[in-house]
């Protein structure tokens, strides 16, 4: 293989309830990394600019109605349509700071009562993050922050359910599917939070081949398992 492996970027996901402060932490982190001379981009899901994203946006703004399973699959499709571009960026050395990812997909839909394994299934094979940072805030406190807008899920009662489902995911699987998980207390000092995130971003920006990282990460997972890792496990146990 020689020295051909280029340094890849890190895939860093921020998760949390609506109004947990993800978006501002994401942009602060990107600015910080850029200031350090690293290539970094801010991404977000849903990406409302695509055709699928426009369907999602219409649903969220109550301009359209969709069956719970249907909207779940659209959120997932919205990540799938960006997968290859994400991979290209990461391989070319750009770190992606992503505002919501699969964990939002599973937490929000399972909070509606959909089966959690059914919710996880379409996420199989998406890129596994190096880090998920969960911005921990109580639903009440989030609701107080400038209030919610008019979007479909921005209601205290529902956000309370989402928080419970994030917790289920956190306890049951995050630790086995990502290299690192950190909790950030969203009420704490923003500068301290940024310092923690920045340190972790650096740690992951160390040039592992993306493929190897996926396999490693996905291979350990009981969920969100790629077909490839499954085949590998099957081969190892036979
Ligand atoms: P946003 O406020 O970050 O733009 O996200 C819009 C809403 O969509 C938010 O309430 C979280 C929800 N959501 C899902 O239900 N499933 C998903 O897969 C994603 C990415 C977001
Ligand atoms: Mg929102």
Automatic annotation (TrEMBL):
<protein>
    <recommendedName>
        <fullName>Thymidylate kinase</fullName>
    </recommendedName>
</protein>
<comment type="similarity">
    <text>Belongs to the thymidylate kinase family.</text>
</comment>
